[in-house]
Each structure stands twice: as structure tokens, then as C-alpha cells.
Design brief:
Layout lengths: L3 H20 L3 H4 L10 H24 L24 H20 L3 H5 L1 E2 L7 E2 H24 L10
Antiparallel strand pairs: 1-2
Length: 162
Amino acid sequence: MPDRIDILEGLLRSGSILEAFVRTIPAKNLNRIRAEGCWSIAEHVSHLAQVQPMLLERILRFMREDEPEFIPYIPGEDDAEERPPVVEMPAAFEAFNRYRQKQVALLETADDLTWQKVGHHPEYALYSLYILVRHILMHDHWHMYRMEELWLTRDAYLTKLP
């Protein structure tokens, strides 16, 4: 895991990248629904904030359990709503950053064996603390990419997700 330090730095920087990026988007665009099945930019930001406690719990489980077993997190699956509830942007940024700081502080205490610890997740052929942490970083940036696409991409070129 030679990139462990880089990933942790990326996790710490995601919050400031997210906030600076979203602040460049005109407020009128934040709640716009571009197409059927698409989330708004505000829903993406809210989702990123809302999943941080679950991700912290997964990190804790890897640190405490020998072979943790996880269930998939699918937004809207347990709710009548398929869309994430929208949180005011300042509150979403604050929550995201607060939990991210806790995640990284905890991860900085993990030894090499903990980083390599394998768990079980039905969605993935292999799941370890290292994979989870890398996934968190990629998840942040996937949502940021999607927000930029929803803001700037012309309708004919907008990626339609199932």
C-alpha cells in the first residue's frame, strides 16, 4: 500500500475541493433535476454528507473485528424515497468535513495489518480496509464529477444512468 499516505491526503482534501467547487455553481442550478432518475447537485452533496457516518462505522468495524461482514448500502432502498433528503449546503459541508476528520484521524492510527484486514461484502470480490478507504476517495470524486456534468454538460451529452 505505497499510496496509503496519498489516499489519506486525498480524503482530507476532498472536503475543501467539494466546497470550493459547489460554491462556483450558481444557486439556481443546485436543485435542478436534469433528467428522469438524475439527482440534483444538492442531492449529491447531501448524499456525500449523509454517508460519512456509515463509512466511519465501516472503518471502526475493520479496526475492531477480525472479518467484518457488511451489507450493501443502497440509498433509498430502505426508504419510500429514492432521492436523498437535501441538507442546506453549509450544514452538508460541515458534516462532511467533521466526519472526514474523524475517519482520517482513526485511519492514521491503523497499523499495516489492520490496513490489510479482509472483510466480506456481497457486492465485491475482495473487500479490505485499504479497498474501502480507496473506495471512499473514488466515491467522493465520482459524485463531484457527476455534479460537474449535471451543471455543465449539454443535454445531448449528459450521461443517463439507469
